[in-house]
Amino acid sequence: MALESQNRTAIVTGGGRGIGAGTARRLAADGFAVAVVDRDEATAKSTAESIVADGGRAIGVAADVADAESVAAAVDRIVAELGEPTVLVNNAGVTRDNLLFRLTEDDWDTVMAVNLRGPFLMTRAVQKYMTAAKWGRIVNISSISALGNRGQANYAASKAGIQGFTKTLALELGKFGVTVNAIGPGFVDTEMTRGIAERTGHSFDDIAASYAKDIPVGRVGKPEDIAATVSFFVRDDASWVSGQVIYVTGGPKA
């Protein structure tokens, strides 16, 4: 357990599965008390219980990050049960992929609500604890799709927005000892990407193999790859790294 993280509380949104669950487990192993926030209460609790079983401190919290009242209630519970949060990982995200001429207003609004409004509401709710402590770490999960990806106009726009959000918050919060950075994952093996494969009628293994051919390190990503980068950003000695976007993609193409 890292001494620097003892008695510090981290929040990971979308923490029930995939990158979020991997990040929650990594931060717990680093010594943080972790609030696993997810719209799906069962998966949030499952991830939290696995952390506790491994000797960490964690709670699962059901919340809709796109709803201000739900966010406020979740943060109040986290403060009461784990302590004031000074680390926030805005990971919750959804996809509603389609080509522009088939993209509905609901598809657009749903993605923007979770992927962009959610980080805004969560960050606004917890920043006061960070500024009061004169120490804080915010890590926003963007995507390589922010650079453009066919069939993802809504998702790409939301993830590009996250990068502007990140850089602006870094300017606003830096004087309070709060750093704000973003990670743009490439193709990562998660329940979300496996679900996309299933919905499109393709074999996930075939899709992963196709992607891996163009990745210099020769494989697709794992949640642990992203979690390791989060772990770096939230360290004490990463205090001079802020406002940055790092693409974790297995190569330099981003």
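[next item in queue]
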Amino acid sequence: MIEAPHYSAAGASKKAVSLPEALFDGTVNEDVLHRAVITFLSNQRQGTSNTLTRSEVSGGNQKPWRQKGTGRARQGSTRAPHWRHGGIAHGPHPRSYRLGIPKKMRQLAKKSALNARAREGALLIVDALEYEKPKTKDFAGLLKKLHVMRFADATAYEILWAQTVVVEIGALTEGATKQETKEASDA
């Protein structure tokens, strides 16, 4: 059973909490994690680099010299790739680097990333963030201190990249019950 440090909303340390086995079974699938990270990084690429081919370069609409009689090699255009100011042969053109990953593999990668962070001791549990009065200033101060993201929006890459993963205790129990009902429906 994996345990994680527990803190109050103010930051005071409490007794360690055992993590639910539905989410934190301790297994880390490195192959799936690798695929999820490669997919995430590939999807961040823009693919906007572009070069001009010989047909896209301006100019070069006539032969530089006549075909025969000069003693020089025949040339059809000054915009051929071997000429200065000519087009680029086999250069990059805009394309999509987008990769896909199956939903169950993405979920397994996220679970493996959480298990890896819990194993390292980089997963912290925090009490529910409740305030006496609904003040934006207090919540904005918290957001400045922490990088906050919904669990559904977090990817395996972001979980692995984060220095520390902070989970609200309510989200932990809610995620465990969802996982248990999912496993029961799959069986």
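[queue empty]
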